[in-house]
Design goal:
Elements: H1 6-30, H2 36-57, H3 66-86, H4 92-99, H5 102-114, H6 120-137, H7 149-168, H8 174-193, H9 212-238, H10 241-248, H11 250-263, H12 269-284
Helix pairs in contact: 1-9, 1-10, 1-11, 2-8, 2-9, 3-7, 3-8, 4-6, 4-7, 5-7, 5-10, 6-10, 6-12, 7-9, 8-9, 10-12
C-alpha cells in the first residue's frame, strides 16, 4: 500500500489547474492566432531550458522506465490534440462537459487496475463534482454529434496518463517528466507541421510570423504549461488518484473567476451552486485518515 501525502498532492493539482485555466483565459483574451503545431513547438521550446535547469538542480536521476515515461508523454500529447480538435466542431460548453468526465474515468481505470473500488464516499464525491460541472456549463444536449467522442477520448487519454503516473512513474522526478512531455510536444508539433499550409485550419495552418506581442503571449503560455505539467505530475505521484481527480474539477471554478475578471462574465446562480458543489465534493473525497510520509 503506497504512502500518500494527500494534502500536498491536492495543493499541487489546484496550482496546476489554476495555471492551465489561466492559459486558456490568455488564449481567449489575446485572440492567439497560431496553428496548433506552431504553438506546440514554440511554447515547449521556451519551456525546455528552465525545465532542464530545474531537473538538474533537483538532482537528475535516470527514469525508472523510459518506456512508461514515453507512453505517458504520448498519451498527454494525444489528449490535448483530441480536445483542441473538438473545439471548432462543437460548442465549448459541450466539449468541456464531455472532457470533465476524466475524474470519473480516473477512478474507474485505477480501480480496474487494482481490482478494488474506492470508498463509496469517494465515488459519491466524484459524481457530485460532475453534477457541479453540469450546473456550471449547462451543455446543450441538442448539439450532440460524433464530435463529442473527441473530448471523451481526451478524457480517457488523460485518465490513463494520470493513473500511469501514479503507478509507473511515481518515483520519477516531476521536472524530468515535464521535460519529457515538452520534448514530445515539439516532436508532435514537427510531425503535424509536415502537413501544414492549409488555410483556415486550426491544426495544420501555415506558419505565422512573430512579433513582440505574440512572443510575449507564447512566453506566458510556456510559463503556464511549465507549472501545469509539473504540478500534475507531482499531484498524481503523491496522492490517491481518485482523490486528486476530484480536485481536478476546480479547473472550472478558476475558469469562472478568470471569466469574471477579464471578460466581465459573472456566473449565474446555477453556476455559483455548481462551484459550491465542486468544493464540497473535493473535501468529501479526502481520506478520513492519512498515512504520514516517513
Amino acid at each position: 500500500m503506497p504512502t500518500y501525502r494527500t494534502g500536498f498532492a491536492v495543493g499541487a493539482v489546484i496550482i496546476a489547474v489554476l495555471a492551465l485555466s489561466l492559459g486558456d483565459a490568455i488564449i481567449k483574451a489575446t485572440g492567439l492566432d497560431l496553428p496548433l503545431w506552431q504553438m506546440y513547438i514554440l511554447r515547449s521550446a521556451l519551456v525546455l531550458p528552465p525545465l532542464f535547469c530545474l531537473a538538474r538542480r533537483n538532482g537528475y536521476r535516470a527514469f525508472g522506465s523510459l518506456f512508461w515515461v514515453a507512453v505517458r508523454s504520448v498519451l498527454l500529447v494525444a489528449m490535448w490534440l483530441s480536445y483542441y480538435s473538438a473545439l471548432p466542431l462543437m460548442p465549448l460548453s459541450l466539449a468541456a462537459a464531455a472532457y470533465y468526465t476524466s475524474p470519473i474515468l480516473i477512478t474507474v481505470v485505477s480501480s480496474v487496475l487494482v481490482r478494488r473500488w474506492p470508498a463509496p464516499r469517494v465515488l459519491f464525491a466524484i459524481l457530485m463534482g460532475f453534477a457541479g460541472v453540469i450546473l456550471i456549463l449547462r451543455p446543450d444536449a441538442s448539439g450532440f454529434d460524433l464530435a463529442t467522442l473527441l473530448p471523451l477520448l481526451a478524457a480517457l487519454l488523460y485518465a490513463c496518463a494520470m493513473v500511469l503516473t501514479a503507478r509507473k512513474c511515481r518515483e520519477d522526478d516531476p521536472f524530468a517528466l515535464a521535460l519529457a512531455l515538452n520534448v514530445a510536444f515539439i516532436v508532435a508539433g514537427a510531425g503535424l507541421g509536415l502537413f501544414s499550409g492549409q488555410d483556415g485550419s486550426f491544426i495544420f495552418g501555415a506558419w505565422q510570423s512573430l512579433d513582440l506581442r505574440l512572443l510575449g503571449v507564447v512566453a506566458a503560455l510556456a510559463a503556464v504549461i511549465l507549472v501545469g505539467s509539473v504540478g500534475a505530475a507531482i499531484a498524481y505521484q503523491n496522492g490517491p488518484p481518485a482523490t486528486v481527480a476530484a480536485f481536478d474539477y476546480s479547473y472550472l471554478v478558476f475558469s469562472l473567476i478568470w471569466g469574471a475578471t477579464f471578460f466581465g462574465e459573472l456566473p449565474a446562480a446555477l453556476a455559483l451552486a455548481g462551484i459550491v458543489i465542486i468544493v464540497a465534493a473535493g473535501f468529501l473525497s479526502l481520506p478520513r485518515r492519512e498515512k504520514l510520509a516517513p
